[in-house]
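Supplementary Methods, section 5.1.

A reviewer requested that the exact input to the structure prediction be made available. We therefore reproduce it here, unchanged from the version used in the analyses.
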Amino acid sequence: MNNILSALNRISCADLTHDEWVRIGMALKAEGYDLSVWDEWSSRDTQRYHPGECARRWNSFRGSDSPVTGATIVKMAQDRGWTPFSGTDGCMAWDDVIEYDGDSQPDPVPARKPSEDLILYLQTLFDPDDHVGYVTNDAWQNEDGKWVPSKGVCDRTAAELIESLLRHPDDLGATVGDWKPEAGAWIRFNALDGEGVRNENVISFKYALVESDAMPVDEQIAMYRRLELPIAALVSSAHKSVHAIVHVDAGDQQEYRKRVTYLYDFLASHGVKVDTQNRNPSRLSRMPGVTRDGQIQKLLGVNIGRKSWVDWMDFVEGTTDELPGLISLSAYATDPPALPEELIEGVLRRGHKMLISGSSKAGKSFLLMELSIAIAEGKPWLGFPCRKGRVLYVNLEIDPASCVNRFVKIYEALGYSREHMDDIIVWNLRGHAVPLDQLVPKLIRRVRDQKLDAIIIDPIYKVITGDENSASDMAAFCNQFDRICNETGCSTIYCHHHSKGAQGAKRAMDRASGSGVFARDPDAQLDMIELELSDEVRNMIADKGATGWRMECSLREFQNFTPVDFWFEYPIHRLDNGDSLKAMPTQGSPEAGRMKNSHSKSSENAAEEFRNAFYVQAIDGSVSVQDMMAYLNISDKTVYARIKKLDGEFVLKKGRVYRAEDTD
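The structure derived from this sequence is encoded token-by-token as follows.
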């Protein structure tokens, strides 16, 4: 078995015919090797390799009466000058090449030429078009006599370097330039943009350097293998350390820093003292193939240990994490799990999340208190039947006395008896609010024995953490609601405010302020937007001080319901059973703009209307006069007059309206 891998590494995949390549795959499978061995070896042919092709071929190899065996690989390698390994003790020296072969032992490989070492290094770490930075003769000695690399070069691609190395297989200097024999040479292990060698010139944050001078070399290698580090390339420094180029597979520099810190901390916790000065993604490492003080900076192996950062993290944390296990769908073929009961019929299940968004005048807190009462009493809420249960109302905004009195007033206005008020628990936290990630553990501890069905948090801006407009920050924030649901079994209901500006031209799920995570995360998102009322409807409710609203939805578990129209008459919301609001447009929509134009307006209202019309329609920073006319239902002369009255806030250029501050 050892000779088979040794022979395989003597064969260049690029020199084989397609049929020869297939026969090698058959032989490896027949000898019991893993698919990854064939795939890694095949990937060295950068011109013909296609990810996934080996797997497709591998699965078609089903054996025969005259199978292709490892002898085929040995014979092909012997034809190319390879001789079988004949070590007397079978032991592996510290500087033998290490090749990954699943759980099997590494197989020693005959010495390669220096140019072959560098070619394999480049093929393993870089794509053909990647720019590679390296330093050869551009080095100097400091006061301590240590050789220090300078900037070097970065304008050549991996493909260009490999092509030159193939042309000059016996003269490494012809490709990379001569180096100072006592200094050796260096290479940057992450791809650059070809314009420089600083961190900002790095375009691919795939690898990090692990180096330690505090352990003997053989112990370093043994430790790295035992910890299954995802090493892409292992290079001897020709001194007292090896350079492990380790997969971190980061998406950007910020993620790179986090992963390198985790990697170094993990190694330190296992007794490996890593040189922490190697954190930079543009860091130099030792170039394989060149000499240093008479010793070769040798490529010891490629693709050692785990194949990727994710694979390694599974190894590191897989036995200790608290994630659910993997389950085949067939386990539920005849007995699928029961769905959680519906807390709000057709809207929300028990243990799921719901967001209510709306403007500051919508009475969101009153609506959430009404929902608390509806659940406690088993009554409908805005026409949706609610399952009777127990509710925790987390009050973060108003003082305790005002909170309790609101509940009492709502009960009175609804005409409900107070038979089940003990099923509503209030947690008054005004003045005591902390970020949600700190609040959640305290909340979970307090409600453990309360047998709750729903937890309502009002409002979330009091406990929000991170940047509201950052998707990653808000994803982490919303994960806290999942934790509440998972650890309590309750539905979690919370409210959030609209972003600034007119909302009528937006989709309901785009109106909530901040990142779109707010709309995508909950299982049910309900949005309240005010309606523009006609004069007739205004006169009808003039003595009630009511405002008209429409609720739209985005539901994950149920079919979206038809928008619900309702009134907010302090202190409660009531359905519009007479359909008075059905034809009313949402505020900020073009229809509302035309309706408002029929009302008498003050100069201030007209100015605000003009601004809203501009911001709703502006896409490239301007709006045509014709679009403003159509939106506001006014003439072009009125558009010009309003621009003039706005005293330089807007300007007119070639039939388009611009903000003055956006023009020269």
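The CA atoms of residues 231 and 246 lie 4 Å apart. These observations are discussed further in the main text.
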